[in-house]
Amino acid sequence: MATKLETSYPVNSNDVYLTVIIGEAQLGSSSVTLDSEILCTGEIKDLKIGNGNDIKGKMLRVKSIVTDINDNTNRTSIIYRFRGRKADTEYLLEETVSQDGDSVIYRAYIKFI
After folding, report:
1. To which H or E segment does residue 40 belong?
2. Could you tell me the mean pLDDT of each successive run of 10 residues in the chain, 113 residues long?
3. Alpha-carbon separation of residue 46 from 16, 35, 80, 81 (angstroms)
4. Nearest CA to 113 among 7, 36, 8?
5. Contact of 62 with 108, CB cutoff 8 Å
6. pTM for this structure?
7. What residues does each domain of the chain span?
8. For the sheet containing 37-42, what is the strand order?
9. Those residues with Cβ within 8 angstroms of residue 8's Cβ, 6 or more apart along the chain or in another chain
């Protein structure tokens, strides 16, 4: 099962930061790539992507695997939170697995404009 986000994110001269939040008390891990450079893997919290002037025109790719470990629900969710403008921007994706222990692959493609 895979869920995908494709969007653009306007940047200015500020630094841009990314936090990936795994919801529903599930287990998850992510990999973040800017163009072809791997920036981080694992838990993503306040990861500095770069200065807006430097990353404009580049593509950020985030691949996350979320596994259902919560016995109370088969729902999974993920929030991609960007900081670097006047207000934070969040993108929420949700998916329900059919069986306990199943995983969902979340992919995000963000073009900095």
Report:
1. strand 37-42
2. 92 97 98 98 98 98 98 98 94 97 98 97
3. 9, 19, 11, 9
4. 8
5. yes
6. 0.95
7. 2-112
8. 2-9, 103-112, 59-67, 27-34, 37-42
9. 110, 111, 112, 113
